[in-house]
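Researcher: Here's a chain I'd like modeled. Treat it as a single chain, no partners, no ligands.
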Amino acid sequence: MRLQKRHVMKFESFTVPQPGCVTQVAEGIFWLRMPLPFALDHINLYLLEDEQGWYIVDCGLATSETRQHWQSVLSTLDKPVLGVIATHMHPDHIGLAGWLTEQHQVPLYMSQTEYFAARALFAGRAGASAWRDEQYFVRCGLATDAVTKAVGDGKGFSRIVSPLPVAYERLTEGQVLTINNNRWTVMIGRGHSPEHVCLYCQERHILVAGDHILPSITPNIGVYSTEPDGNPLADYLDTLLPFMELPSDTLVLPAHNQPFTGVRARVQALRGHHQQQLKTLYDVCRIPMRVTDCLPALFNRQLDSHLLHFAIAECLSHLNYLCAEGQLVRTLSEEGVYIYCQSPASETEQNDSVLSFDMVNG
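Model: Modeled as a single isolated chain. C-alpha cells:
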C-alpha cells in the first residue's frame, strides 16, 4: 500500500503592516495592507523592487482613505514606480490601478480577459436593460423585493474603481517578467475570476498568489448573471493542480490573511473543501430544492445583502458542477425558479466516484 505524503501549512511570523506602512518579507519584496469596508476588512498588496524602480502588485479600492495610505507609502520610495501589476479585475485589486498608472505614467500589466472584463464592468450596462440580472435572481429563488435590491443600478463597480487606462500590457500563461534579475513566471488560475494572474519565482521559491490560493478562507467561486450556466468550479479545481508541483517551502504571498508556506497542503485543503460542499449539496437535493433553499446547508451564518449575493453565486457554481457531472438535474418551475434534485440515474457508487477528486500527492 502506498503511504500518502503529509503536507503541512504554516504562517510566517512577519509583522502585519499597518495601513500606509510596509513590511519586508524577502529581499526586494515588501508587504502592504489596505483596509476594506467589508467583513473581510483588508487586502494585501506588494511592492517588488527593481534596479530601476518599483512594481506595484494590486492596488486596493478607489477610496480617499486608500489613496492617503498609498501617498504615505509612495513618499518613502527612493526610486520611481515602473508599473502596476493587477492579479485580476475585482475592485479591491484593481480599484486604484487607473489612479496609480495615471499618477506615475506607467503601464498596467494584466491578463487579457481580466482587463477587458474590468473595462466592461466599469462601463456598466451602457443602456442595456437589466432583464438578465433580474431573471438570474428570480431563478435562484429570491422574492421580488430582494430581486430589485440585488439588481440595483449597475454602477457599483465604477463607484469603487478609478477610471481604467485605455491601454495595458498583456500577461499570459508561462510568460516571464524579469524584475531585479529575478524571473517571475506567470501562472494562470481560473474560477475565482476568468484569468487570474499569479507570479512564481522559481529561483527564490516565492509565489504571489493573489486570491487564487488563500490560507485561511476559500476564494469565492461564483456563477453570476453574466454567465449563469458557467462551470467555474471545474476551472478552479483544474487550475489548482499545477500549484501542487511547487516546492513545499514556497513562500506564498496571498491577497488576504498572512503569508505562509505549505502550498501543497493548502491546495489539498481547498480541493477537500469543495469536495465536501459538493457532497453536502448532493445530499440536500434528495428532495427538490431552490438555490436559496440550499444556502443554510453551505453557510452557517447570517447573510446580509452583500454576503447573500456571493453566497448565491457560490452555491450556484457547485450546483452547476453537479449538473454538468450528471449528478443533479435542473428543471424550471411554473414560477420561473430553478429546481434541483438528484438525478434518477445517479447511484451511490457512481456518486462516490464522481465526488472523490484525484488528490495529487505531489
